[in-house]
Specification:
- There is one protein chain.
- By secondary structure, the chain is an alpha/beta fold.
- About 30% of the residues lie in helices and about 25% in strands.
- It contains ten helices and 17 strands.
- It has helices at about 10-20, 35-45, 65-75, 85-95, 105-115, 120-125, 135-145, 170-175, 205-230, 305-310; strands at about 30-35, 55, 80, 100, 125-130, 150-155, 185-190, 235-240, 255-260, 280-290, 315-320, 325-330, 335, 350, 360-365, 380-385, 385-390.
- The radius of gyration is 24 Å and the shape is elongated.
Length: about 400
Amino acid sequence: MFSDRSGPRDDYFLGVQDALRRAGFAEPVLVIDRGRLDANVDFLRRDLPAEMAVRLVAKSLPCAPLLRRVSSSLKTDRLMTFSVPMLTDLARSLPGAEQLLGKPVPVSAAARFYGEDLEPRAHSGVLWLVDTPRRLAEYGNLATELDRDVDIVLELDIGLHRGGLEPGPALAETLALFARQPRLRFAGFMGYEAHLAKVPTLLGWRQREVAAAAELYRRAKVQAVEILGGDADGAVYNTAGSPTYRFYRDTQIANEISIGSALVKPTDFDTDLLEPYDPALFIATPALKVLPATRIPVLERLDGLKRRLNPNLARTVFIHGGYWKAEPVDPPGLRTNRDYCRSTNQEMLNLGRRGHLEPDDFVFLRPTQSESVMLQFGDIAVYGDGEILEQWPVLPPSG
């Protein structure tokens, strides 16, 4: 037997619902709570170690006004982008930003970027990520063809094993190539270690893995100084992401952390390390139909028994849209029906008898991630002080 998980609606969501109605919304929309966003940014600013720089992950916050607000609060002009279309779009909307590519891209994509009609500072404010000696040579040829200096950050493998260079002969070979590529400039290292957040803390396991990743990074920095000398001074030593940035309490290893999703906190980021952050991102969508029972096609003869065994199947709600990377959060107890076909048109959800919902009321869901979900709804509704204050356009979809 199951217990009925439904109950009265949360006053917070009822307030957002009222604001959406006053603003004339009647279709699925993504909502950002500006007050919660600002509080999360304030916590990050207080939490950062002294001298630690912060780079905003654009794919996790794919909205120029959102990036502008957060970067202004944090006093940073550093972004991490993951495709040339996004790089180009942000170069136009935020031309003063310094953009580090979060993954290596083919040199032909870089050549296309330099062919765009952009402000000179936008073209010069890019740090390209390189993971192999071959790719470094390709970027060197491009820099020579363009007759311009090109800044390169080398990707390190510090335990994630998703490519990149490890300290040792391969890294030494790659670093030595800079001496033969006069138009390439060594701009630093990027070592991502998202796996560390998943390591259990039992018997100090996570602590040992964090230390092992830090030691790999330290050895890479030693090699850079040995081979490049003064050219390694002032370089970017980037690491972390939202789930792991709190492992770095000083700048002995990294002088820059990347963060994005924690500031709006989708459900995938409900972790012990991010407990101080509040969810600030929601999907709001109308309940088109609220039916007095749950009926599964062809299996109707079993519906009564299933409802008696599970009171959470007492009622059916068909919402406007659906099948998003998201989990229902209001009304309480609302759940996806896994036996009924998932639908992006009218998804079936179920609700116990203690929950109150009328047709055209808004249902609220929390995205499981921000980077793809935020691009599916058009302009974001910005909620604050009990009203929808403005709408923010999102970036065009890109890889």
